[in-house]
Amino acid sequence: MNGRPKLLIVEDDPGLQSQMRWCFDAYDVGVVDTREMAIAEIRRREPPVVILDLGLPPDAEGTTEGVAALDEILSLAPYTKVIVVTGNDDKQNSVKSIGLGAYDFYQKPIDPDLLNLVVQRAGRAALILNKYPYNNGHCMVIPRRHLVEPDHFFEQELHVAERSGVGNHGPYPRIVLPGH
């Protein structure tokens, strides 16, 4: 491992693959172009963040493969943050994907700075979920020491959790304090 955060890009357009690989040079990037390859990479690399194009072969003009990939990714790795990428006129499928569990969506064309910001935000949310796992997917367990002597990193994590609605409990996560 090279110490860089892992990122999986699922995109069938070679030009966009190159552009996104270049955008994310600070990441350990894996690039695949089919649902089957994406699932294999999820199992092998366990990336915390995935950028997923909904239009994958053999249905590159539709969304059936992308939606199936989203479903499989979240079944295998429920805390993975999936950012769906769609065409300009495809907001309906983006919103549908959020309803199915995607973390966020991004519409093409690619703006490297904005997409990088979305990926960074997703990475922070994934870090929180890995550090403070949920109990049956319903609540965040935070060690008492962070509440007695909170450090700057913990305060940032809690702020990100509150802003991102980690756990889908409204604007704030449900938090469990051990021993209470």
Taken in chain order, the helices and strands follow as EHEHEHEHEHEEHHE
Binned strand content = 15-25%
Strand order of the largest sheet: 2-1-3-4-5
Indicate the CATH architecture of the largest domain: 3-Layer(aba) Sandwich
User: Would you state the CATH class of the largest domain?
Assistant: Alpha Beta
> Which structural class do the helices and strands define?
alpha/beta
Kindly give the count of domains: 2
With helices defined by DSSP (H or I, 4 residues minimum), what is the helix count? 7
What characterizes the major β-sheet? 5 strands, parallel
Unreliable stretches (pLDDT < 50, length at least 5) are: 164-180
Strand element count: 8
Shape: globular
Could you tell me how far the N terminus lies from the C terminus, measured between alpha carbons in angstroms? Answer: 38 Å
Q: If you consult CATH, what is the topology of the largest domain?
A: Rossmann fold
Can you tell me the CATH superfamily of the largest domain? Response regulator
Spatial extent as radius of gyration:
17 Å
Helix share of residues?
40-55%
